[in-house]
Write a structure and sequence with these properties.
Elements lengths: L6 H9 L13 H8 L1 H13 L11 E6 L5 H9 L16 E7 L6 E4 L10 H16 L11 E7 L5 E5 L15 H13 L4 E8 L8 H9 L6 E6 L11 H4 L10 E3 L5 H5 L4 H14 L12 H41 L10 H21 L13 H18 L8 H12 L9 H12 L3 H22 L7 H35 L13 H15 L33 H53 L5 H4 L4 H25 L7
Parallel strand pairs: 1-5, 1-6, 2-4, 6-7, 7-8
Antiparallel strand pairs: 2-5, 3-4
Length: 675
């Protein structure tokens, strides 16, 4: 399902702020009739979304009934309905949630309808009880030891009920009985929490009055998710079974457990009444007499009993739905737009398309090529905001990786004074020259310039990888056709490699060009080489003016061959005389100056070469190359073979859209209601 669907719950959550315990229906008859239509409308939405398994992701207003096994929870529901219809017995009787939709009718007929038995009306409520039992066992088994979160949906139509939607949840048990799992208490509580933790769910917490209210399992669970008591309605049962001389007025008045929606006391049939089939109508009359005549409850009798509880819940649910409805309508409209957009992305099935295979293939290749170029140029609207991508990423490779890498390279990296002195001595041969031999400078500068090749080729690899990533992004237009996507991706990868190979050769040639001719007359090299000549002239002038010259300087030893020694070769430690020190310093100065010139040339030429030979060439030629190699009539059927998964997703999305349109029609039924 769409990831955006859970956001409906956030809309409903913000609307669930029922602050008043008033249950008096509006006096205006027309408004009352309009309001009463809201609950059946939500019931329709519930059925519609249940048909596609969306009840867990779409939170519609509802009332969840929570209580322990012996709290009288089932009797409360039966008294609200006015019929015996729930399974009875020992242990856990309610093993699946029962979504009970009460629908007021003006006709005298009373019947039930199960969502899993469409268009079947059941007038015999004993048969309804048996069907609940059978449907429960169908999922949980007959052993009676397991529970299931899969709900049963039951509609009861009757002129004796108010419009109401209640969810009967399994009763809380503390001790496993018989072959029940040891963690049955944990399982039941987790199922209950899945419903009541949603802030749009009203909690009907049923607690027996003849036990300490502080130990009520229903109120403990309600407080865990509704700490302020904003959406919990307390129900006190077994008031008639309390010890003589005691009452529950402190609880009803909220002195022990404050609930903003208050407590309602009820008197239910006892076990003997149930076994003797005492009519619920008689039980309700007895309940009214109990509150009317009881000395403690007489003053609040008009706020006690099943009839008042039903009206109270009806009013709370109506008010909640009224607040939620406008935003639900707008959200469903937004979901319809998203579903239509998703369908558009999945495309029209080939058998339904008016476009022939050739035209469709050409359109797909064009879309892919355009997407590739747009990502490079930065004009694609679907680009992420989380990280750099496409053309921006390529620029980042140039400016934040390649340039800094070259700038960090030292012109004399890897060269020791010993290496420089040895190079000078080797260039002099048997002679003692007056100036530094140019051959030593040329040899050393070539060695350093050669080091620029590796980061340049690494830059090519990084841009190549980014272009492959762009291909992965652009292939979303081809996801329907896996063979076309695979062939296209393989072809573009081959095309990039065809452009990459000559590009790397060209970049290597750039380095070779720099090595081929060391241009000491370069205008940026000490003013065309004039300054370097002056530096060496000053050195010569210093020598002939009488500075002490060391005679017979030590000859550097030849480096030993590692294969001829047990240990690693050691660099000879020979002190330089003043002349050699000055010559080494001059060489370093010349190296840094010339290396900087070459580095500047390479840092400018490499990005330009990459853009021309690989990026721009791919962008400009991609569509024509794809068409030339893939647009062949004998390949149409193979390349346009649709992905089964996409076809299934399209079908599911189409079904989802149908459901959402149906939901929109349901919501529009109240467009003219004055609610």
């Amino acid at each position: 399902h769409f990831a955006v669907l859970p956001s409906i719950s956030r809309i409903l959550l913000s609307s669930l702020s029922v602050r008043s315990t008033s249950t008096t229906p509006p006096h205006n008859h027309t408004l009352t009739m309009s309001m009463n239509q809201l609950i059946p409308i939500v019931n329709k939405l519930q059925d519609v979304f249940h048909s596609v398994g969306m009840l867990d992701t779409i939170d519609l207003p509802q009332i969840a009934v929570v209580g322990s096994q012996s709290s009288g929870k089932s009797s409360v529901l039966e008294n609200i309905v006015g019929k015996d219809f729930l399974p009875r017995g020992t242990g856990i009787v309610t093993r699946r949630p029962l979504v009970l939709q009460l629908i007021h009718t003006n006709e005298g007929e009373e019947y039930g309808e199960f969502l899993h038995l469409p268009k079947r009306k059941i007038s015999d409520f004993e048969e309804i009880r048996n069907e609940i039992q059978a449907e429960t066992e169908r999922v949980t088994g007959k052993e009676g030891k397991s529970i299931s979160a899969l709900p049963i949906h039951l509609k009861i139509h009757s002129p004796h009920v108010l419009n109401l939607t209640l969810i009967d949840l399994p009763g809380i048990t503390k001790v496993p009985v018989g072959n029940q799992p040891k963690d049955i208490e944990y399982q039941i509580k987790q199922m209950i929490l899945q419903y009541i933790k949603k802030p749009n769910c009203i909690i009907l917490a049923v607690s027996p009055a003849n036990t300490d209210i502080a130990n009520s399992e229903a109120l403990k669970l309600a407080r865990a998710v509704d700490k302020s008591g904003d959406r919990t309605v307390g129900v006190l049962t077994k008031l008639d079974l309390m010890d003589k001389g005691t009452d529950a007025m402190d609880v009803i008045n909220g002195k022990h457990v404050p609930l903003k929606l208050g407590f309602v006391g009820v008197v239910l049939r006892g076990q003997q009444d149930i076994e003797s089939n005492k009519p619920i109508k008689d039980a309700l009359e007895n309940e009214a007499e109990f509150f009317k005549n009881h000395p403690a409850y007489r003053s609040v009798a008009n706020r006690m009993g099943i009839a008042f509880l039903t009206k109270k819940l009806n009013g709370i649910l109506l008010e909640h739905i009224r607040k939620c409805l406008p935003e639900i309508r707008s959200k469903i409209s937004a979901l319809i737009s998203k579903a239509q957009q998703r369908l558009s992305e999945y495309g029209v099935p080939l058998e339904e398309s008016e476009m022939n295979h050739g035209a469709m293939l050409l359109q797909l290749l064009t879309q892919f090529s355009k997407e590739f170029g747009d990502v490079i140029e930065g004009t694609n609207v679907d680009l992420t905001t989380d990280e750099l991508f496409g053309g921006a990423r390529i620029n980042h490779i140039f400016t934040e990786k390649f340039y800094p890498m070259l700038e960090k390279m030292d012109a004399c990296e890897g060269l020791t004074d010993y290496d420089i002195r040895t190079a000078i001595r080797n260039a002099k041969g048997p002679r003692t020259s007056l100036f530094i031999p140019e051959a030593s400078f040329v040899m050393l500068v070539k060695k350093q310039v050669k080091k620029l090749e590796d980061p340049s080729l690494r830059c090519v690899n990084q841009v190549f990888e980014e272009l492959v990533a762009i291909v992965d992004h652009a292939e979303k237009h081809l996801v329907r056709f896996p063979k076309l996507r695979e062939r296209t991706k393989e072809f573009v990868a081959d095309l990039l490699r065809r452009y990459e190979t000559p590009l790397k050769v060209f970049i290597k040639n750039l380095i070779q060009i720099e090595l081929a001719y060391i241009n000491t007359n370069h205008p940026d090299f000490f003013d065309g080489g004039n300054s370097s000549f002056m530096i060496m002239s000053q050195q010569f002038q210093t020598n002939v003016n009488g500075q002490k010259q060391q005679q017979g300087p030590p000859v550097p030893q030849r480096r030993s061959n590692p294969s001829q020694q047990a240990g690693a070769p050691q660099e000879p430690q020979v002190d330089m005389n003043d002349r050699e020190a000055r010559e080494s310093q001059i060489i370093k100065t010349l190296l840094k100056e010339y290396f900087g010139i070459v580095r500047k040339n390479i840092s400018d030429a490499v990005p330009k070469s990459i853009m021309h030979f690989m990026v721009n060439m791919t962008k400009l030629n991609l569509q024509s190359e794809l068409v030339q190699n893939l647009y062949k009539s004998e390949l149409f059927e193979e390349l346009l073979q649709e992905n089964d998964e996409i076809a299934q997703k399209r079908k599911a999305t189409q079904k989802m859209l149908t459901i959402l349109l149906r939901a929109q029609d349901i919501i529009n039924e109240v467009r003219d209601l004055k609610v």
